[in-house]
Each structure stands twice: as structure tokens, then as C-alpha cells.
User: What shape does this take?
Amino acid sequence: MSLAVSSPLGLNSPALGLECRGCGARFPIAAQHACFECFGPLEVFYDREALATVTREQIEAGPKNIWRYAGLLPAGQDEAQRVTLNPGFTPLVKADALAAEIGLRAPLWVKDDSANPTHSFKDRVVSVALTAAKALGFTRYACASTGNLANSVAAHAARAGAPSIVFIPYDLEPGKVVMTAVYGGDLVAIEGSYDDVNRLCSELVETDDFEDTAFVNVNVRPYYAEGSKTLGYEVAEQLGWRIPAQVVIPMASGELLTKIDKAFEELVAGGLAVAPEGGWRVFGAQSEGCNPIATALHRGSDEIVPVKPTGIAKSLNIGDPAAGIYALESVRRTGGWMDYANDDEIRDGIGLLARTTGVFAETAGGVTTAVAAKLIASGKLDPQLETVIYNTGDGLKTLDAVAGQAGPTYRVKPSLRAAREAGLVS
Ligand SMILES: *Cc1c(COP(=O)(O)O)cnc(C)c1O
Ligand SMILES: [Zn+2]
Assistant: This one.
């Protein structure tokens, strides 16, 4: 019997254990996120032979959601044991008009993850984290959130019939607060920033009262992070098992970016997808109000200096990003770049994406669109190479950001005469 079969994460999990991203020390599968040796972050490592048995045909015969990639994920191989809203397989939208407007001459695609059940990419990470958490014996679900994660954890708990308690900064957008509260779990608004919320959750998780509680991005974070890989797998599969030459990804903790890169590596290593000539390049997007990772890259530094976030891209407002140095590593290794957009550029980015593709993004999608345009203007993105930009959330949750600039183009009385006077008919 191989180790994989006896995993505490369930039958047929290919996950073998946790490995420190800092010093490489290895630990058994458990609810642990920091290395006992050096306090570095832990990452799931797999039985390479088990991963190598996964075929395109198996994946293509699977359900139209993230679980088609169960053979490449740490948990959820047994459908009956999943804690999930079955997210994923969201549209990959061909964006010719956007390409023309920003000056890209190769195919451009928007991966639209607003189409997930709670309207952000967070459903992917939460489904994997909570499925692992359940297998590890947790009975209550929690998180520290910039908004979308709270929506998703509360909804997953509701579907599973489990209690939840989610923690957010008190000043989030009303759409994000309502969309969490409606599911009926506990919602704790903290009078502080996301980084304060996260610090508090790291303390709570150590207390006896939270012994039964999985914080998706604290004690079960290694499993959470793996869920982001599905955004890499899907894009490759939707392109006919090809990896795009360039991807532009929004960054909060920086985890999503590193995991899309990791997913591409796994697909190539497993013979599942073909890398583009010259390899793929990973690009990161932040807002000017919270740009610690991009700033480190621009300074040529390995040190991420934490910031106090400001600005409208609240879902990306992590001032002390846990995976920032790994995002730097991905971008440098692949020959990509990072940039950031200010609030006006973010609003314009939301408008540009909506008007050219029919996709209404939240502020994070405005950041990514605006940064993609900047990267082409600055020559960092090659206009001749196929490019995918990731829209990770839904504009309906951040209406206030564009409410001032999006409204009726005409207001007329209900008569033909009034319509004529307004110039609608001649
Ligand atoms: C959380 C989030 C991100 C970034 O996630 P990280 O993995 O922390 O970098 C991007 N977009 C949206 C909409 C998010 O909610
Ligand atoms: Zn270590």
C-alpha cells in the first residue's frame, strides 16, 4: 500500500505531506501552516507517481467544475466527502476588442471567475480547504477575509450545514458584508485593517475555544493555497491543453499568482499540457494603495516592506503579503513583471473591460485590466504573444466604485415627442 492511499485527507489523496518553502523540512499531513524549524510557510507535496497517472481523458470525463482535477489536488477525491459549492469551469472569454484597444496583436483572453457560485475565485480555495478540514476532523469553518473569502466560507458552511465564523475589517464594501451575513453564520467586523484581522485570527486559532475550527487561510492554509492551482489547469485545458505565453494575475497575498505558475509546471511535468515556445511569463497586478510586492520588484529587492493599504481595491488590500517573496520569485524566474494602478485607473479598467468584453469586474478586475494596459504601454508585456488576464471577482459587489460614472445616458418622459426631443429618433 502506498502512502497516498493511507492519507488522513482521505482515500486516494496524492498528497504525501507538508514541506517548508523556506528550509525544505517535511512534516506529516496536519492542520499546520508554519515550519517548526524556521517558521517558513508550508506547502503540500505530492506522490509524483500518483500525479503522473492522471490523464487528459480522465480529466475531460470529469464534472464541469474544479473536481475534474481531483487527481491533482490534496483532498476531495471522494465526492461524498467534499465540502463544496462545486465551483470552477468558468468562462474563458476571447477579448478581441479589448486587445485592439490596449494594443495587443496576439489573442487575448479573460478568465472570468466572477461566474463562480459566490462570484469570486475564492470558491476554489475554500472548497479545497474545507474538504481537507473536514477530513482532518474540524467541525466549524472560519477565515480572515478582505471580503470575498468571507462570502465563500459562509456559503460553503451553509451548504454543508456547519457553523461558521468569519472575520473582516469593519470598513468593507456593503455588497461584501451583506453577501456574507445572508448565509446566517457569525460575522465579526474588526475595528482594524485586514492585517490586524489576520493577526487576531492567528491568535484565536491557538485557543481552546477554537480547537474545532478550521481557519481556511490560517491553520489549513497549505490546502487552501492548492485550490488556486485549478485556475491554471482550467485555462490550459480551455486553450486545448496549451499554456498561454503571458498571464496577468491580481495579487493580495501573492498566493494565487504562485499557484497558477505551479499548476503550469505540474501540467508540463505530467505531460498534460504543452508550454509555449520560450516558456510562459507571469505578471502581477496590485493597486497603488497597496503595492508592497510590485515595489520590491521595482526596487530590485527581495525584501517586502509592509504598507498600510488604502484605495478602492479592498479585496487586494493585504499590506503584509504572506506569499509576496514567492510571487517575486515566480515573476523573476519566468521573465515577467509587476505594476500597479491608482484608483482612477482602476475605475477606468472596470469600464474598459465591461465595454469591450461584457464582463463586469469588481475593483480587483479593474486593477488587472488597468495593469495589463500599462504593461503593454511600457513594453513589458509582449504585444505579439497570446495573453490571459484573470478577472477574479464580480462588479456587483463593488458597485460604489463606479456608481459615480455609470448611469443612464438619457432620461426622457414616456412619449415619442420626448424621445424625439432627446435625439433618440429623428
Ligand atoms: C483574494 C483575492 C485575490 C488575490 O488572492 P491572493 O491569493 O491572496 O493573492 C484576487 N482577486 C480577488 C477578487 C480576491 O478576492
Ligand atoms: Zn522551514
